[in-house]
Amino acid sequence: MKNTCLIVLLFVFSCGKDKVVELPEINQSEISEIKDISAAYLFYDETLPDSLELNRKNLISTTNWLINVDKRLTLKQAIPKIKFLQEKKQKSEHKNENAKNYFTCNDTSKKNLGFVEFTNVVYHNKDFQDYVASNSNLDFSNKMKIDFYASNEIYLEFPLFDITSVLSKENNLLNNIKLILTNELKPVEIILSFNQNLTFQNYISYKLMVSELDLKNVTISNYEFIFN
């Protein structure tokens, strides 16, 4: 099972049905090969009530998991299934602590598959303000929040809960972050917050865009928020 392209073909043929996952496209992936794998598929299916079908029959808990999510699915549709798979692996009696989870993507630069790791991502299906209200004992100072809306608007907030927030365009996002944090000497953690109506393609594109940020003392939180 080293050839990941072959896995997709075998799955489609073995099912005897014409099912295709349109993978999210990325410009370049740092990870292009993964060994010891098993795969799950989140299909986009307009004939179903929630337009989603999950196939996880071939998952083996001790392997690296490749989660193939159709790029047309919204986060509202996909994230609950992704969380379900994460919990399934975490609760397995036969765990491999070294096994990781990846989203499979179409790397257009290499015309091959690329992979985005999400092993340690913790998804919160709630607004960030609600999370803060229920965790008032936590320190939220020196955190920047980035809200990605389905309308393609992006808002930056730093320090958190200031009245003023910065509206950014996608092509200026990294520059705007750098301008805001240029004179910040303390470590800053960036928290990503996504509207539930964004497509999975939007989600992957935004995540990778922020990951390209190269600033000293700036990290990206493993906590991600999905808001209405």
UniProtKB/TrEMBL annotation:
Protein name (database record): Lipoprotein
Organism: Mariniflexile gromovii
PROSITE patterns: PROKAR_LIPOPROTEIN
